[in-house]
Amino acid sequence: MHLVVCLKQILDPEIPSSDFKLDTQARGPAEGIASFVPSIFDENALEVALQVREAAGAGKITAISIGPDSAIDTLRKALSMRADEAILIRQGEFSDLDTYGTARLLASAIRKLEPADLILCGRESGDWYGGQVAAFLAAEFNYPYTALVAAVSRQEREWHFRRQSDDGWETIACSVPAVVSVTNDDHNLPRIPKVRDNMIAFRKTIPAWTAKDLGLEPQSTRGPNAELELEKLYIPQVSRQCRIIAGDNVDQKAEQLAQQLADLHAI
Amino acid sequence: MTPTRQVYFNITQVWVMYLLFGITLAVFCHGIYRHWRRWQIGRPVDRFDQLSTRLRLLLKEGLGHQKLLQRYSGAGLAHLLIFWGFVFLFLGTVVVFIHEDLHIHIMQGSFYLYFESLTLNVFGVLSIAGIVTALVQRYVRRPKRLKPDKPDDAIILAAILIILVTGFMIQGLRVQITHDPWAAWSPFGKAAGMLFAAFLSPAEMLLLHRTIWWFHLVVVFSFIGWIPYSKLFHVFTAPASIFTQSLAPRGQLPLLNLEKEDEPLGVSRLQNFFWKDLLDLDACTECGRCEVNCPAFLTEKPLSPKWLILDARESLHAQAYNGNRNSPSPEEPSPLVGPVIKEETLWSCTTCGACMEQCPVAIEHVPKIVGMRRHLVMERAEFPGDLENMVRSLEARGHPYPGASASRTDWMQGLPVKSLADQPNAEFEVLFWVGCAGALNQRSQSVTRAVAELLTRAGVKFAVLGREERCTGDSARRIGHEFLFQTLAQQNIATLDRYKVKKIVTACPHCFNTIKNEYPQLGGNYEVVHHSEFLAELVAQGRLKLREAKTGKVTFHDPCYLGRYNQIYDAPRNLLDSLPGAERSEPEWNRRNALCCGGGGGFSFMEEKRGTRMNQNRSCQLLATGADTIAVGCPFCMIMLEDGVKTAAPEQSVQVRDIAEVWKAATE
Amino acid sequence: MRSVVAVLIADHNEFGRTEIEVLSAGVRLAEDLGGTLTAVLLGEPPASFAPNCFSYGANRVAVAEGPVLSAYQPIAFSAAIEQVIRTIGGDVLLFPSTTSGLELAPLSGHKLGASVVMDAVGVDGKVDGGGIRIHKPVFGGKAQSLLIARKVPVVVALRMRSIAPVARQENTPGEIIKVPVTVTSPAGTWRLVDRNVEQSEGLRLEDARIVVSGGRGLGGKENFACLEELSRVLGAALGASRAAVDLGWVPSTWQIGQTGKKIAPDLYLAVGISGASQHMVGIAGAKHIVAINKDDKAPIFQMAELGVIEDYREFIPKLIEAVKKRKTSATTL
Questions:
Q1: Which of A40, A109, A113 minimizes the C-alpha distance to A74?
Q2: From the CA of A88, how many Å to the nearest CA of chain C?
Q3: Which CATH architecture has domain B270-379?
Q4: Is C306 in contact with A242 (Cβ distance < 8 A)?
């Protein structure tokens, strides 16, 4: 069984709002305001893959990421969580990489590996919240696609996905191979790696592939989304004035609030 | 006539004694040998450096019974008497040996009278007094710390009493029968003899003397032979443990070398302990002082430092003494952590150090617990869920507060303070290390601001690292995540060295302890002071002046990492006393005996799942002083005690404030 | 760029808030562009669907019909959408961010070679030189982006509860056409095995008028009990921030936020919630926000209308009392 997990390294989303600033041209976040971390849902995806392998008793997990050289950190984290292999695809050379291009690039890399039974991605990246690469990847391979998956199990020749629906949960049976996008759930919190695994991961080599390795022309990774123009990127000013309920003690404040709620016709 | 006495008076077949002694010695040595082999399965460590310091400690803590007399001193005094009695009586026996077997006739004349007779008599009686006190303590007063009763304890005390009493009996009978001219020099022996003479004939007394002499001998030899097989072994292991105790700064945990590939990360089996850690298991006399000062034990958590040591000891004794030294693969289940020492026990410790402070035989509990935590965290990645989140946050953000929405520079708003990053060439006297709590916790931010304002007022040129500060790593290290600690520490050391920082002041004792005592292990050497010390210095230099004060009734709670670990008790007290109008009282358990607030060892980041709350326990003690203000010197204590006071005494308006806040308020 | 298409899946739901919002966005956009709004229905919609679409501004309803549409299947349905759009045309496709929308928007977009923007909170057609503007929050809500699409087709998935509905117009005429779908099931199988609907004491989070929500500050699973009481007394639904879900205190269906439910209740009570932007994103449409938190520096106090700085453990029981008192006195009047 071969599982492929796609990861992206992003700016730490937990940065306090007061520290979040845009760069001078307002095209993206400013440099140096926070550290880089694996995208939150991508870690859930990796955890799901690890759980699938544990349940099956065997299997190979390959972690793959497109990014600058610093994205190696995310891949090392994946290795320390016990992914078997990690591959970096150097973003630098691919100009104008939009979501179509990202999917095409990932697909061409994945095709170089042994056939994958399941490809897992996070439901959306924790920075730009694109939410499309997983589906595009399914389209590239012409595999079935399922979104918002929280858990995966193997039932004979099928995958069973437990996924969020609009009002609860659904179990989907899907043929192998398939592509899923993963969402967070209390059962797929990414595990803390054992320090020894951390140390082993540190010593592993992570190959970095270029356009040439993938047989692609860098310009060929421009898709329809590259036509979108970013007209403006700004930090919205919040100007709501909050009224703090005053009172000498809890009883008074509770009274006050109840009164306010009544005034709002809430009760 | 020269004062002396006949050795072996009325005793024949003395060769039997030598035979029995030979057997005793063989049994004794075999016992020692078995222990020795067991200790050897531990890892090497050099505990024979600084010999003069070690000797001094042996004299002070061993012979001088320092810790025994500092607390529960009645029991300590009893032991002192028993101990010194034994020392002198043993010397007396050595004198006989020298006199009789080596034929160096020292046991005569004034020496015989003053030493061998009078001194030994006095110490013998004092020793009996000690034993009787001990018996009353153990079987009448029954303090909790001595539970449970074991037959061994009764046997040992009875044996010693028998030895002492029969000793006097033998002496008494002899002086009576021989009409010893110097009997008056052994007053108690003489009295015993007179008692016998009142009831017995000389022939009966002779028989009795011989019988009791052999009886006494058998008891003594059994006693000696039994030493390595019972609690009595502490007679050797206690001084050995005291002598080989760690001389590193108290607040420093041992450094783990993470470079070596197959070194076990922490303690999963007895072989992973240092040999000294195994030695001190055998030094434990089950006195229970550690237990009744442990904040976890006192709140019914599944941790008793005493039982931790005794369970480990039992496991050690169950090992074949030529146990396997090699470390197993990390995947193998631990025979120690889990089966012998439960995980919930290990996670109940706040690392407050009270156990080690109270232990009269220098057992090192906390490094053992952290050693086992290291295995759980680094080898097995198994630890309480709350701590997982703390670790994730430390790894990603360099602070242990997941979900913190503040930035490290928020507290600076409105103050003329800038980070070094914004003014890298600024000159400064001292770096104010704010700490994660001081920057990100809403309540602690007031303390940070108070300290900054006081420093400004005193005209001190200080710098802050702002966003470049990362957690010192104290919490990571205490929960056993040595890897994370070293990562954070190295980052901080690089930053501090880049700015050429020499002197650091901080309001957090955990930061204080780690930077001062633990960063040198990784190459970071700085002069570190706690803000109470620094402010006290400023007051002494006249740079901080009092204006008016209306401080009122105040008490000070000693933070574990400032007091016990770093022996700083007076600076904060002096700071408070320097405020006119301050009436300072001391809580019940203070200074080295202070009870932990429950905030250390990772507890500031996780829920107490069992027992009652540690902070409430301590809060009650502080409230009992009647103070209106409880002064603290640590952000963890602040959070814990504010919560504890609010729960324990919600109607009262007792405030918990940092000493900096008290000072600032009193001088506005 | 003139034809706007609202793609609606009539799977197992009735015509409701979701559909109204997509149509409302579509009708306004069509107006800006001077174009038309077509509602494309897939999945055997009930008869009432089409008239409802007209009531909310659709000019035309295209009902896709074909054997492959009998049961929802992402690849098959996206192929169907492609065929329908290639048959009837469509420049801007609007999807709701339902589970099916999250699958079909990018899948159909890829098939059509469209620019795809997910999680948008608004669209307008007021762009110089032609095109549409898409409003999309990024970085967990810390920043807002405006994207211009000038080339067709464009696929936009709209965040729930972010579009103000247009007024319903009764008796509006409209054309219903049937579009035959001849695509077959793709390679690979996909079927629904089991469905589990979360019963949350009758009140769906998205529809509730009042929502009481707990966060990290609650400290533990058991502590949600007092919020449950409060919600009973107020007749509210219960929600939570991601922190509470990740800590295992509440089921993930309670999660409100960037990656969770988006709701727009009349009243939202945030208890022990700090107010991180990712959470606030989920309640951007709430009318009145009340925050209860013992940390006066919590960012939520900058976004709430009313705030109480108290420990919820002490405050909530008192609030419950005060509300109960009012309720009983109201009924006795």
A1: A40
A2: 24
A3: Orthogonal Bundle (1.10)
A4: yes
Other Cβ atoms within 10 Å of B424 Cβ, number: 10
CATH fit for domain B399-539, picks 3.90.580, 1.10.8, 3.40.50, 3.30.40: 3.40.50
Q: Do B467 and A17 touch (CB under 8 A)?
A: no
DSSP code at position A89: E
Q: Does C216 touch chain B (CB under 8 A)?
A: yes
pLDDT band at C203 (very low <50, low <70, confident <90, very high): low
C280 reaches B (C-beta below 8 A)? no
**What is the C-alpha separation between C159 and A140, in angstroms, rounded?**
26
Give me the numbers of helices (H) and strands (E) for chain C, helices first please. Answer: 9, 16
Asked if residues B286 and B307 have their Cβ atoms less than 8 Å apart, the reply is: no
The answer to whether C140 faces chain B, any CB pair under 8 Å, is: no
Fold classified for B14-243: Fumarate Reductase Cytochrome B subunit (1.20.950)
Closest among A106, A99, A37 to A71, alpha carbons compared = A37
How many residues are given for chain A? 267
Which two structure tokens, joined as six digits, stand for B163?
Answer: 């030895």
Give the domain CATH number at A125: 3.40.50.620
Most confident stretch, A239-243, B646-650, C209-213: C209-213
The average confidence (pLDDT) of chain B is 91
Q: Tokens 């946050």 appear where? A: B393
Residue from the list B330, B381, B398 with its beta carbon closest to the beta carbon of A192:
B381
* CB-based contact, C248 to chain B, within 8 Å: yes
Number of domains within chain A? 1
Return the CATH superfamily for domain B547-666.
AF0625-like (3.40.50.10700)
Contact C247 B385 (CB under 8 A): yes
Q: What percent of chain B has pLDDT over 90?
A: 74
Residue B286 neighbours by CB distance under 10 Å: 19
Alpha-carbon distance A122 to nearest alpha carbon in chain C (angstroms): 12
| ipTM of the modeled complex | 0.90
Q: How far is C276 from chain B (nearest CA, A)?
A: 7
DSSP code, position B246: -
Burial class (CB within 10 angstroms; exposed 0-12, middle 13-18, buried 19+) of B644: buried
Catalogue all structural domains in chain C, each as residue range(s) with its CATH number.
Answer: 3-180 (3.40.50.620), 210-332 (3.40.50.1220)
The answer to whether the CB atoms of A35 and B467 lie below 8 A apart is no
Give residue-wise pLDDT tens across range A187-220.
Answer: 898 998 988 888 889 888 899 998 888 888 877 7
**What residue type is assigned to position C5 of the chain?**
V
- Which residues span the domain enclosing A155? 2-227
Any domain includes A257: no
- At B295, the amino acid letter reads P
Whether the CA torsion B138, B140, B141, B142 is positive or negative: it is positive
Which residues of chain C are within 8 Å of residue A126 when distances are taken between CB atoms? 140
CA distance B199 to C303: 98
Residue-wise pLDDT for B569-591, tens only, equals 999 999 999 888 889 999 989 99
In chain B, where the domains are located: 14-243, 270-379, 399-539, 547-666
**b or e along C233-270 (b: 16 or more beta carbons within 10 Å of the residue's beta carbon)?**
bbebbbbbbbbbbbbebbbbbbbbbbbbbbbbbebbbb
Question: What is the rounded distance in angstroms from the CA atom of residue B276 to the CA atom of residue B362?
Answer: 10
**B137 touches B73 (CB < 8 A):** no
Using an 8 Å CB-CB cutoff, list chain C residues near B405. 274-276, 297-299
Say what the pTM is.
Answer: 0.86
State pLDDT tens for residues A23-81. Answer: 888 889 988 888 899 999 999 999 999 999 999 999 999 999 999 999 999 999 999 99
Size of interface A-C (CB pairs under 8 A): 262
Report the alpha-carbon distance of residue B465 to residue B423 in Å, rounded: 10
